[in-house]
Structures are given as structure tokens and as C-alpha cells.
Amino acid sequence: MRLPLSWLADHVAHGLTADALALRLAASGTNVEEVIEHRVSDADGNLANFRVGRVIEAVKHPDADRLRVCRVDTGDGEPRQIVCGAANVRTGLTVAVALPGALLPGAQEPLRVVKLRGVESQGMICSARELGLGQDHAGIMELQDGLTPGAPLADALPIAETVIDLEITSNRPDCLSITGLAREVAAFTQTRYCPPVEAEPPADGPGSVGDYVALRVDAPDLCPRYMARVLVDVEVGPSPIWLAARLEAAGMRSISNVVDVTNYVMLLTGQPLHAFDLDKLAGPEIVVRRAAAGEPIITLDDVQRTLDPDVLAICDADRPMVIAGIMGAADCEVSGTTRRIMLEAATFDGPNILRTSLRLGLRSESSSRFEKRLPVELPPRAMAIACRMLIETCGAVLVPGTLDACEPIPQRPPVVLRHGRAERILGVSVAPERSVEILTRLGFGVEELPDGLRVQVPFERAGDVTREIDLIEEVARIEGFDQIPAVLPRTAVAGGRSPAQALREKLADRLVTRGVSEVISYRFVPEADADRLQMSAEDPRRNVVRLAKPMSEEMAVMRRSMLPGLLRAAAQNQAHQRPSGGLFEIGRTYAPREDGLAAEREFVAVLRFGPPSTEHWRATPGTLDIHSGIGLFADLTSVVGVSVHPEANDAPYFHPARQARMRSGEEIIGWAGEMHPLVLRNFDVRGPAVAVVIPLDALLAAAVTGARPYQPILNVPVSTRDIAVVVADTVTSDQVLGVARRAGGALVRVARIFDRYVGERIGAGRVSLALRLEIADPERTLTDAEIEAPVAAVVAALVGELGAELRGGS
């Protein structure tokens, strides 16, 4: 909503500068987008260069048939010589003059004294378009007689205007009007609000409205009120300069006096209006009905649209003339030949107007107001003002009578405001008389009670103010939210993190300390991600939650996996010269449920990609492989005391032979693996890449609760023994370590595999594994015999349980 301050001044003398007014509007809940200096700028005294002039003489240019050399009185004593090309310039005309040094709207440089075909011109005689007062450029403006030459042009014409561009929330349709905003300004500046004159104009036309048109409303649920009046002897033409200028400042184009009046009244009151050329209607009856399926209409923007029964249409006997509340048809618009008009003021169902507007892809100033649910009491006000203006600006004559199809208007009960309740909500005390003043200035009817107020809500605010808390908000925003002190609430209970929150924080901290960066990716993803991850047609993860109205195919479904978002982020990093790195995200995936909702599950997913950096002088070479993935997984689970061991896995997006599912006890708590080369190619990621995925609910269930047992630092020697065994290649390293740890007993503190060999020396189908045992007793130093005993037990168990052959040891 664009608010011209000169128009606002007709209804409230607020006494504020534009910037101060913008701040107060924003503080009261109306967001200000911009303060605009419209038309002629007043910077550096520019307005002084625009004056009223009178043409003393206008003669033909000696070297140009279409130019006139004019002597113009601009109040300087000696007339100025100005060359003008307008056909309507003549002796005795009062005109608008821009002097040398004037900066015209949209110009980059000021006017200069120039020579046109050899004749010096000392300024410009202006048209309406050159001053930003309209689109008319056919000739210069002809000002009214009686103006004094040399007088400031700004005193005669609205050539300078300041406009505040406002963002109006959906619950405040009253602020989509000059009068609504004026009432707001009057309330917070404590000044008088002057409403527009709403008295009915004289109706002197022949006959009555029923002699010209009849009305039938077949869809009262979508049109609770429809009013119509008839005006005759209408003279359609250009609007007065003041009217066109106001519309231009408010962001609307001047079209003709009839159309401009309907737009002016809409901006003034918030109620859209529509004028029909009565002689273009087929038949004497207006029918408000649902459109027929496939019914066509060519709207004012010259686009043919196809309607359906969900669309409300205003029709004559043959066809729709208006898509109700949105736009009229091109073949019944007011034109230069119009002499009789029917003026419409109606109330339409807001949600239906919004649905229709979205379905047809057609929005207008009218629809933006109707979709916010205008009150049924508003049309008579707008109708009276519009009829008076049509009489004054178009020479129209109003026919007696009004067609008014109106559903019963509901009685709105008063709302009680308790002073004590307001103080408890706001945290500060507002004097009862101040509350009465604020609500009264906002147009509410107020009756004082012993401990509060009984408030009658005006119809303009009926959709927004329905409860006591709404009245408290009205008082607070006008009194000023800045008057409410910022004090933390007092509470006897201190909050704390839940176990899940604590786990997220621990995992994030651990990953950040490992040089992994956190990312946040879209939860809406393309359905093609399942193909990029090489999921089979039968994979249940292809069953996704689809969006009813996706913004694009790239955001059509809810994600089932965290990996695509990380892979896309990795590709973007590599595209910006970061070939390697680590990324993680803690977020949710979504699976469809039978009840139509989504089953959510939270994961931490990590992706390391590209060769490890060796640019730093302390960097050590390394590779990304399944072992580094398993190590990263174990490091993350260790933050909650969970130990894991890997098992074979077969996810399609991991390398077929280099992936693992991670087990803790009997439960699977995640997966790790090298990304499949084809998956990397599908996401434009240059490998290698290793991923870890951990469901947080599974990790939380396996986490060690309570205090962990204290492990003192050993102050005795630790002995190491290495054992090399040959086993079948079907035996996993996890089996070997499990047997060694169990057989070694408490003295074997650590058992790990540090080497692996396959080759001709041990034969096909066999593998050599080298184990290192760390042996110690925290209470004392062991003897050689005590050290060799668990080593022998480990060897015996490996031979007996796994069929191992001892290769050698130390």
C-alpha cells in the first residue's frame, strides 16, 4: 500500500516529518518498506525552479513549422523566451514552467538554456507527464485562470509528493485504505481524525434504478451483499489533474474519470468498486452466480480465461461480465462512448476470491482486498462517496434508488477488557483513561465498567479484534511496545538439555574438532535422488512423502536419506576450488505413514571427500577408505561410551566390498562405507569419499548412562607381543579379535590387527593377520611367565576355534 502524505493530510494533521511518521507506523505494527520522494524532488531548493507562467505571445518558429517561440511571464519582470512544440500553446494561456536549473522527474541532469533551431529557449513549458502528474503528453497542461505568474507551481499543482510504501498484514484489510491508515495515525499522534463526507448525493435522474436493471444473486454464500446504482448523462474523459496525480502517487495509472473515481474510492475506503457500461449489457438483469464449467471470458488484460463452477461471476443474460472481485471483461468496460453506467459495490467471500485468483494466475488491487474478508457494512459508504464524485467530475446524474441484495448482518457482541488482565499481560500499567482514549481514537465504542471496559468493535476491525487479548494488543501497540520493559521472566525451575539435545551437541562438537563443517540442506529433494543413489525399483526407500504443490521438480518430495544433501554440498565445494573436506548434518528423514502423515527419524550423517590435504607443513599423507570410515564411526560413538564392531553390509550407494554396518551388542546403530563411484558421478563429486550415517535414536538407546568407570593411568610397564596367524579368507578380522580378547582375559588390555598379507607364500584362499597384544596388570609388574600365559591362551584359542596356523611371534 502506497500512502501519499498529501492525501493523508486531508484526514489527519499529524505534524510529523515523513521519516518520523514512518518510524511511528513501524512501531505500531505497520511495516514500512520505503519512503519515496515522488515526482519533483525538493532537494537543494529544486521546487523553486517550477513556477506558474502566462504566455504573453506565441509565434511560429522561423525555421520549424511545429515549434512556437513564446514569451512567458514567470514573475521575473522581463518575460522569458521559451520554445515549445505543443499544438495547444497559445497567447493568454496559464501554464506550468520549469526554469533553467530545474531537475525534472526521472532526469539525470537539470535543464539548461539551449538553442532549438537557432532560437534560444530559457526553460520548458511542461506537460502532465513531464511533471509526473499523469500519462498525457499530447500537449502542455492548461492551468486555471486567476493564478499569479511567478507563483510557486507547487501551490497550484501537486508536483511534489512524499509517499510511504507500506507492507500490510493479512489481518488488517482496513489499512489497505487511506481512511484506515489515517485513523491509525490519529490514534498514535493523539490528533483528530477527519472522515470523508459520506452523505448521500442528490438523485435527480429520470425514473428509478429498477427501470434500468434488475438484480439476482444465486450464490449468497459467495456474495453476501451486492449493491448497484445507475447514473446517466455521464461524460467520460480525462480526470482532473489532482485526481490523476493522487492515483499516480498511490501507484495506479490514470485511465478515465469514471474508472479513476472507482479506483480513488477503493484507495480511500478500502472497498473495491466496478463501473459497467449499461448499454453493453445483454438484457436488463444482473445475475451473480457460479460460472459454468468451461465458460470463457476475455478479461481487461486481453487474455481469454476459462472458468469453472468454483469461480463466482457477475453476468448478464448471455455471459460473464466480471470475475467477481478480480477483473472485468474487456467487452463491457467503460469507454469514451459510455453515457449510462451501473456502479457495483459488493462483498465477496475472501477464501473463494483467493482460490480463484491463484487458480487463474490473476491478481489485482481489488482481489488483494477482497481476499482479506471485507465487511458487509462497507459498500454503502463507498457507494455514496463514489456517486458524489461521479456527479462532480463526470457531470453524471444519479437515478433514484439502490439495488441491495444483502444477507442478514450478524450482531457482534461487545468485548470486555479488564484492566488487571491487561497489566498482567503487558507487564506495565496503562491508565484506564489512556486505554479509553486509544480505543476511542481507533473507532471503538467504549463503555466504562468498574474494573474494565465494555468495547464495541467497529465493523472495519471485526475480523481482527474478537477477544480481550486483541484489545490488549491494540492498547499496547498504540501506547508503544517500547514502553514495555525488557525483563526476563522469573522462574523457580532451571531448564536443562534433554538427552537427545545433549547427544546432538556432543556429536557436533566432536566433528567440529575433527575439522568437519556443519551444513544444513533442503528437506525437499527431487524424487530422482533414489535413482542417483542406485536404489532398486523394489527398494522401500523409494516410497516417499510427496508435496501436494511443490515449488519445482527439484523440491518435490521429502528426503528419505541424508546423503544426497551432503553430496550436493560436496559438489558445490569442489566447484568453488575446495577439492577436499568434511561435511556433516544433523537432521531428519521422512517416510510415509498409513494415516497420511510422515514418520520422522533423526540422523547424524558425515561425508569426507577428496584426497586429504597435504598443503600444511605438519600434514601427514593419508587416504579415505573403509577403515577411516569405521574409525570415524567408532570415534563418534565413543563420546557416549558405545563400542562398535563392523559387519558386512550391502547398501547400493556404498562400494560393494568396502562398506560395513556397525553393531553394538545385538543392535545395528549405523553404517559406514566408501561411496560408490557411480553415485559420486551422479552427484558430480570427485572421489574418494567416505560416509558415516548414525540414527540418533539407536545411538541414544545404546549410550552408557550414568557415571563411567574410572580408568587410572597405568604406572607399571606394558608388555607387547605380536602374533601372526594364517586363517581362511572367510574369517573376518572381527572374529579374530573377538577370540583373542576373550581368550586373553583381563591381562590383555588391547588387541588389534596391524598387518594383513595375502599371496603365494600362504596359498590361495588364505590370509595372514598380524595381531599386537598389550599385556599389563595395573597393580604390579608381571613376570615373563605371567606374560606368556595369556599369549599362549590366545594362540590356542585361535587354532582351536578358527583353524588358525601360527606363523611366528615375538
Task: Give a quick precis of the structure.
The chain is of the alpha+beta class and 810 residues long.
Descriptive account of the structure:
The model has no long low-confidence stretch (mean pLDDT 91). The radius of gyration is 41 Å and the shape is elongated. The chain has 20 helices and 38 strands. The protein has a 7-stranded mixed sheet with strand order 26-29-30-34-33-32-31, sandwiched between helices. The chain is of the alpha+beta class and 810 residues long.
Q: What Rg do the Cα atoms give? A: 41 Å
Widest sheet: strand order?
A: 26-29-30-34-33-32-31
List unreliable stretches of 5+ residues: none
Count the DSSP helices.
20
Query: How much strand content do the residues show?
Result: 25-35%
**Gross morphology:** elongated
Please give the alpha-carbon distance between the first and last residues. 87 Å
Give the helix level as a range of percent. Answer: 25-40%
Largest sheet: 7 strands, mixed
Mean pLDDT: 91
Number of strands: 38
Structural class: alpha+beta
